[in-house]
Automatic annotation (TrEMBL):
Residue ranges constituting the Gcp-like domain according to the UniProt record: 31-224
Protein name per Swiss-Prot or TrEMBL: tRNA threonylcarbamoyladenosine biosynthesis protein TsaB
Signal peptide range in chain numbering: none
SUPFAM superfamilies with a match to the protein in the record: Actin-like ATPase domain
Organism per entry: Geomicrobium halophilum
Domain of life: Bacteria
Coiled coil: none
CDD domains linked to this entry: ASKHA_NBD_TsaB
PANTHER family listed in its UniProt record: TRNA N6-ADENOSINE THREONYLCARBAMOYLTRANSFERASE (PTHR11735), TRNA THREONYLCARBAMOYLADENOSINE BIOSYNTHESIS PROTEIN TSAB (PTHR11735:SF11)
GO cellular component, one term: cytosol
TM region positions: none
GO biological process: tRNA threonylcarbamoyladenosine modification
A Pfam family assignment: TsaD
Amino acid sequence: MILAMDTSTYVMGVALGNMDAVKAEWTTYEKKNHSLRLLPGIDHVMKSINSDPSELKGIAVTSGPGSYTGVRIGVATAKTMASTLDLPLYDISTLEALACNRRFANGFICPFIDARRGQVYAAVYESNEGELHTVYKEKLWLMDDLLAVLAEASTSVHFLSLDIDFHRENIQQVLGSTATFADPVDRRVKPGEILRLAEKIEPVANIHAFSPRYLQLAEAEKNWRKAQGYHE
């Protein structure tokens, strides 16, 4: 079995299983620090199927983009477990895992996470019989720029995000009826999809060198670099 975890947003999830079957899954929308909930969540899913760490064959974690603190907690926990238990570690993009909730859709699939100041972390995918293919790689976009690019494509676009309501009006103004929005249950990463993705990729080559995919500097680091005279 693989243990999967996602701490990229305020919604946190843990799952056990493989691409053929999810044995146990737990998700919480409660807005509390993930450091207080992740290990108890892992313990909960392990106990729910009377499993123990000796049965694990790997650890999979979403490495971002997303909340700096949340992603750090998930990656640090996954690295520690993989190293301690001598297990392979699988690096999963938060946006790709989220896009999997619409992996049989026609048109473009656009998962995003709000990054404030009119910016979003986003990627764009297309589906081919349930397999995702990247149209635009994940990066930090100005939402207006992303929508301009999507408008040129003249195809339906399926948006998935916990932050849809922050951008819904803007999306509808630019894309009109070509934009569709995921139901609330599909706006967050499903840990079971992390399991499926993990079994399709090679594990991380160097666990100790593995780090989150932030896509931009944290605000504190930006301010420090500015104070030190760095010019981006």
